[in-house]
Amino acid sequence: MNARTEAERLLPDMHSPARLSNTHLDALEEEAIFILREVAAAFERPTLLFSGGKDSLVLLKCAEKAFGTGRIPYPLLMIDTGHNFPEVTDFRDLRAKELGAELIVRSVEDSMARGTVRLAHAGESRNAHQSVTLLEAIEEFRFDALIGGARRDEEKARAKERIFSHRDAFGQWQPKDQRPELWTLFNTRLAPGEHFRVFPISNWTELDVWQYIEREHIALPSIYYTHKREVVERRGLLVPVSPLTPARDGEQIQVRDVRFRTVGDITTTCPVESLAADAGDVVIETLTVDVSERGATRMDDMTSEASMEKRKKDGYF
Hints:
Elements: H1 3-10, H2 17-20, H3 23-42, E1 46-49, H4 54-67, E2 76-80, H5 86-99, E3 103-107, H6 108-114, H7 130-141, E4 145-147, H8 156-159, E5 164-167, E6 195-198, H9 206-216, E7 227-234, E8 237-240, E9 254-259, E10 272-273, H10 279-286, H11 293-297, H12 305-313
Parallel strand pairs: 1-2, 1-4, 2-3, 4-6
Antiparallel strand pairs: 5-6, 7-8, 7-9, 9-10
Helix pairs in contact: 3-4, 4-9, 9-10
């Protein structure tokens, strides 16, 4: 029995209206909307981190429901490495324009020009260096709350984080000094220079996200669905062949049917083999996977929990 057949056996009513309007998704959506409204009420200068990826698009859909189309009360912020997939950045710009939302883009390349980011070599990934550019943007605009689409199921270090994650005046996260969140009561007090990172979909899973995308008919960048792409096999991953990630000596370039489970810097993000052509197909496919999306597709996350935790302490998303 193949993976799709097994998933269909487990969920025989996969495309029924009852499944697509289930109370589980309603509860998650209500929680996210409540948190988005709490941010608007509690902070003076919040912003919503918007990459054009699926999680930030789900977050944006919840913000539309919370405040109304064209009435989102905070700007969208994107930290661009300069190595993002063009399909994603083009979609980001289109979606912001459709909503009439203010989109602020700050680039790692600008930080490099200022000398605040220095690469060890030209081919080094810029992914981790986003922390510097992000902290510079926080200082520039005096943001006191940054709303992000991170989820606890993505990675162990993220699972430790509160929904309202306090950051000190240096943008650092202290995992042993977090504020309790009993009965959905959030302590939003800040000292000068401090800020919060807020994660309204923290309790969602990858499956929840895709079910919500299917139910709400949320448009996504095309690379989230099956397409043909040149790849090479490297360390158990399918690495996309591009000017930034060329094939190495001895590697055989293949054309495969792939999709991206998560999108980020081209130099760190890998696709998975897939024929999933729409959100319903992805839901079925997601039921059969046993590796998190970041664990299966991010070259820079194949290190350790401690490494990611250190990056978050340094101000990473």
